[in-house]
């Protein structure tokens, strides 16, 4: 029975775990998706926005009328804006001027004040979105800079919520956890909890071709030659995030734009799961290591957000074609609407 809640924030956390039935056909073991789009802000970032802000309140850092500052145009921005509205805070987001207008409109619709900063300047330039966010936070009394890539409370929020939920939902039977790492908070926070329960659980990180994380995991070196442009938003990075705890990761898998895009469409068309691009990337990674699973494997895939945010990307046939992801390769996964 549906519950009654005092405000939208009470719906954050406790997302469902749903069996994958068709997209893992032929693979040994059981596969489940942790559907983070069931959070009210439609992504896993609701968890960190709520936890980081409430933690700052407990520590006395935030008082009524406070200002929350961050540098994201993506899921985290939306989640912070949502939490700020309910709690009566102002939300300021410094974002790249390359951000699509629809994304900016999305954040503004949620009450955020958006500062556009030039994309083509180094991170230490005073005009960069990092420096602008830092400066606003420093100059604004009663403010908090979320700084999700380097905030340990990001990781801790998943230790407190995502990890315990998965343990209970699988009745302790989970054998593998697979997740894309951006800040690394989701995968490694959940992994820290799960490994305390059972150190045998295998933790598999997913990185993008074009990001430095896998190579750093394998060699301990940040190799600038690894950095290349790529389309999947939310996973991988050109820096090593402080929120990522490499010690709990057993293996890293690299995935590329094209198969991840097809896999995202497959999830919609075969499982009726309207999820984002990194969910497809996560499925691609699971398929790449299918030889490591057996009949007793209970594999949890982290699906971070909702597919509605990608209508002009993976769910657009025109976009797919513009990337050279051609109709013939779509294997019947093209949408009827435009083809
Ligand atoms: N997928 C998407 C769509 C995201 O926005 C993010 C967050 N950057 C991730 C995956 C990765 O989550 P995390 O930052 O917790 O590693």
Keywords:
four-stranded parallel β-sheet; Cys_Synth/Cystath_Beta-Synth; Rossmann fold; 11 helices; binds 4'-deoxy-4'-aminopyridoxal-5'-phosphate; alpha/beta; 2 domains; Cystathionine beta-synthase; 339 residues; six-stranded mixed β-sheet
Summarize the SSE layout with pairings.
Layout: E1 17-19, E2 30-35, H1 45-58, E3 67-70, H2 75-87, E4 90-96, H3 101-109, E5 113-117, H4 129-139, E6 143-145, H5 152-160, H6 162-169, E7 176-180, H7 185-197, E8 202-208, H8 213-219, E9 251-255, H9 257-271, H10 277-288, E10 298-303, H11 317-322
Parallel strand pairs: 2-10, 3-4, 3-6, 4-5, 7-8, 7-10, 8-9
Antiparallel strand pairs: 1-2
Helix pairs in contact: 1-2, 1-5, 5-7, 6-7, 9-10
CATH architecture heading of the largest domain: 3-Layer(aba) Sandwich
- State the helical fraction: 25-40%
What can be said about the biggest beta sheet? Answer: 6 strands, mixed
What CATH calls the topology of the largest domain is Rossmann fold
User: Are there runs of 5+ residues with pLDDT below 50, and where?
Assistant: none
Helix-strand sequence: EEHEHEHEHEHHEHEHEHHEH
Tell me, what's the shape? globular
Strand share of the residues?
15-25%
Task: Characterize this entry briefly.
This is Cystathionine beta-synthase. This protein has 339 residues and is α/β, with parallel strands linked by helices. The chain contains 11 helices and 10 strands.
